[in-house]
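job 3f2a | input accepted
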Amino acid sequence: MSGANVEQQMPSVAETLAAAVAGLQPERLPAALRGMAENLVLDIFGLCLAARRTDYVRAALDASDGDGNCTVFGHARTCDSSGAALVNGVAAHGEDFDDTFEGGPVHAGAVIVPAVLAAAERFALDGKTALLGIAVGVETICRLSLVAPRLVHKAGFHPTSVFGAPAAAAAVGAALRLDARQLANALGIAGSMASGIIEYLADGSWTKRLHPGWAAQAGLRAALLARQGFHGPRTVFEGTHGLFNGFARRSDGNYAKLTGEFSREWVAETLAFKPFACGTMTHPYIDCAIRLATRGIEAEAIESIVCEVAEGTVHRLWEPLALKQAPPNPYAGKFSGPFCVAVGFVTGDAGLAAFTEATVADPRIRALAAKVRFVVDPANPYPDNYTGHLRATLRDGSVVEERQPHLRGGAHEKLSFTAIEAKFRANAAFGGLTAARTDAVRALAATLFDGPIALADLRV
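job 3f2a | predicted structure (460 res):
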């Protein structure tokens, strides 16, 4: 094909997105995006600190053999940019307590914040460019999840991993001020590196915890390759052998959801922050269970609980039902509808302390979880809205119901900054930080975008 014919081709999806990203300037970002980004980095810092002494974070850190000047949140040791992005991404998502975009669902912060801050330290970027990178990355991963809703999950892949790699490439590319051609190559390279198989629950595998870190590392590396002139496939998203055909089993997605009004309308402003340390789709059901318990009903007085659920959540939260009613380990419990309902009812919460070996083995929680089953509600609005419902039949024959109309912490009922800060402080305490060090990290998050990126207060 001649050069003239190549020039006459319509821009690909990646090229259209790259052009929009390349035209952005940090000073023109909406003020609401800075507020979102400040909340996001505070949340991610707290999550990494909470997980810093876990076996899976230690394994990821020990496996990162590249030394450098980049901070591993909650650790004295520093790594090269790839190692820091990997370990911080693993830690941020490890307890499934991180942010969610409801339309996906995808977890943006665990991929984007580690990738951008590692690049910022490595290349001495300032806060304004880091803010631009985080805004672009969050927007990109959220919009990618809307192109073919539910299909990546249904095909057996983790959307955070699949979409995280190109989103991290866009984020780091924006922060490094790559031009449109370089950005398009970065998207193509990263899309070719995406992965995310999710056979991970019952056997105790750590691979889902790895996905955001791997995506952050892959996206960072893709941006650096493109910066040096490495080429990626121009039709990485819509092509016959592209990302959507590979992971969603179709290539005719709604790409306007990705590129339409990019940089003029920001879906990133609707990012949801989690109040509970488990799969987002369980949260409205936990709220229902906690409210049911406040009626003075004892777990032993319950004969059965039936939850109305969305068909798209069944394979993740409700089947096989016998296994979901008796999860074999705490991590599996985070993705079990019956267990989350039971632990919320019995303990009144579903934070980090609710998912332990002790709670999984607790006979009272297990007995109640065994009574929880589901029916599919064909009118359920998931994934556009996350709702909850339970109908409890008591031993005396009476029936009580609870409904939750939306995700608490999401677009319909955002968590206040006070709640996000309280979550951060609780997570930092869980990770063993002193009050003084916690205050220093809190102050760092509040001023991160005002000057040079300096993360020494996170080196514990």
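job 3f2a | The two ends are 56 Å apart (CA to CA).
job 3f2a | closed
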